């Protein structure tokens, strides 16, 4: 562990190792599930719009439920809330597998079940992530946040590598059941964490859940660093992440490939994210992180332009790896800054807003891109979205110095609402 630098220090703590092992397990199952369901939706409908709609139904519930979930995570036992939410995700996967096996699954039922899973994930994310500062000393928090994102991106590599052959040999059912098993395993590890009782809950209830959820919005919006950073991340995510959420139409229409091509592209995204995540994790410091969060958006936009501009599959794989690397740098850096700057009593609510951005914004982007793709083709809408993303980058670069001063210095993170 010592040879791993900052990452090794974060992993030297017993609870951190247990937490991240469970995260890697559940997220591997999640990526297998996503590949399987997106391919199933494409087979059922042959429509980029419906593939986008499936992604939308999984991710969009965060718009409504993430702020509520953040308020709940700040007042409820976070370990227990995580267990309940993860169990619900496992149940949804079991139901999907059963309906596929029986031949009763329709696209409508699939959409309903994906909404159910999305609601559960909206509660799981802030509850689980709010536990992280209790697993490592504060000095190791940037590396721990990076390690958390690293686990997600390792899973994004492993999951497709498993999903492609598994779907080709056994179909979609075994892939979905693997996700069910993975989330059950992750749920059963939660009671093993030795979390300080004071860290299991943010604060005693002070008002209604709705009032505290609104207070979370006010706090984030009024914060001179967190508000602009989350706004920047939200717009960039809407414009850029839709491509990754509806890969099957790109795979079949542009590159003329099947499930193997889908798995390879997704795995390349994960490989890029893995290596960039390792680099960010071993930085082990907050200074300069705001510049990484902003600059990575430009790199991702340019890589996405390269991805859709070519019909050459090997070059597309390279661009996909760059997309994954830039997305990982942006995500890790943003979450590190939010964890560093947020008041502890507001942490669950602020992280729920980050969760809403990472789930709802890609869903909206996927839905719009899928709809436009049916009318204009996939390339033109993607080009236009990337040009807009570069415009957002210009705004972020102008705000960079003021955001960095607040986000990278914990002493300047005021509490403006409660």
From TrEMBL:
InterPro entries: MFS_trans_sf (IPR036259), TM_effector (IPR010290). It is found in: Cell membrane. Keywords: Cell membrane, Membrane, Transmembrane, Transmembrane helix, Transport. CDD domains: MFS_MefA_like. The keyword Cell membrane applies. It is a multi-pass membrane protein. This is MFS transporter. PANTHER family: INTEGRAL MEMBRANE EFFLUX PROTEIN-RELATED, STAPHYLOFERRIN A TRANSPORTER. One of its GO terms (cellular component) is plasma membrane. The chain crosses the membrane at residues 18-42, 48-69, 165-193, 226-243, 263-281, 378-397.
């Amino acid at each position: 562990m010592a040879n791993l630098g900052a990452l090794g220090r974060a992993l030297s703590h017993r609870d951190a190792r247990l937490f991240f092992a469970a995260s890697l397990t559940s997220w591997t199952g999640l990526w297998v599930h996503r590949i399987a369901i997106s391919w199933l939706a494409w087979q059922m409908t042959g429509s980029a719009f419906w593939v986008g709609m499936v992604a939308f139904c999984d991710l969009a519930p965060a718009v409504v439920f993430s702020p509520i979930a953040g308020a709940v995570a700040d007042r409820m036992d976070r370990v227990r809330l995580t267990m309940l939410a993860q169990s619900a995700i496992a149940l949804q996967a079991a139901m999907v597998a059963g309906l596929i096996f029986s031949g009763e699954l329709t696209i409508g039922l699939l959409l309903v079940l994906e909404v159910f899973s999305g609601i559960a994930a909206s509660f799981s994310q802030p509850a689980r992530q709010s536990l992280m500062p209790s697993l490592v000393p504060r000095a190791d928090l940037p590396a721990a946040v990076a390690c958390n994102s690293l686990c997600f991106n390792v899973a994004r590599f492993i999951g497709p590598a498993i999903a492609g052959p598994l779907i080709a040999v056994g179909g979609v059912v075994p892939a979905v059941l693997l996700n069910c098993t993975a989330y059950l395993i992750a749920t059963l590890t939660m009671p093993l964490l030795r979390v300080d009782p004071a860290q299991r809950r943010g604060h005693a209830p002070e008002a209604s859940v709705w009032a505290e959820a609104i207070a979370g919005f006010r706090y984030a919006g009024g914060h001179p660093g967190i508000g602009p950073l989350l706004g920047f991340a939200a717009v960039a995510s809407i414009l850029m992440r839709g491509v990754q959420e509806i890969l099957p139409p790109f795979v079949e229409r542009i590159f003329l490939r099947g499930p193997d091509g889908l798995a390879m592209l997704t795995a390349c995204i994960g490989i890029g994210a893995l290596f960039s995540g390792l680099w960010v994790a071993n930085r082990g410091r907050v200074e300069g992180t705001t510049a990484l969060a902003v600059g990575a958006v430009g790199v991702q936009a340019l890589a996405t332009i390269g991805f859709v501009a070519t019909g050459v599959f090997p070059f597309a794989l390279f661009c996909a790896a760059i997309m994954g690397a830039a997305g990982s740098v942006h995500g890790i850096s943003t979450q590190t800054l939010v964890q560093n700057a947020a008041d502890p009593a507001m942490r669950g609510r602020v992280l729920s807003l980050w969760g809403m951005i990472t789930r709802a914004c890609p869903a909206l982007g996927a839905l719009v891109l899928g709809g436009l793709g049916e009318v204009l083709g996939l390339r033109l809408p993607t080009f236009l979205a990337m040009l807009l993303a570069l415009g957002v980058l210009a705004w972020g670069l102008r705000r960079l110095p003021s955001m960095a001063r607040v986000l990278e210095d914990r002493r300047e993170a005021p509490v403006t609402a409660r």
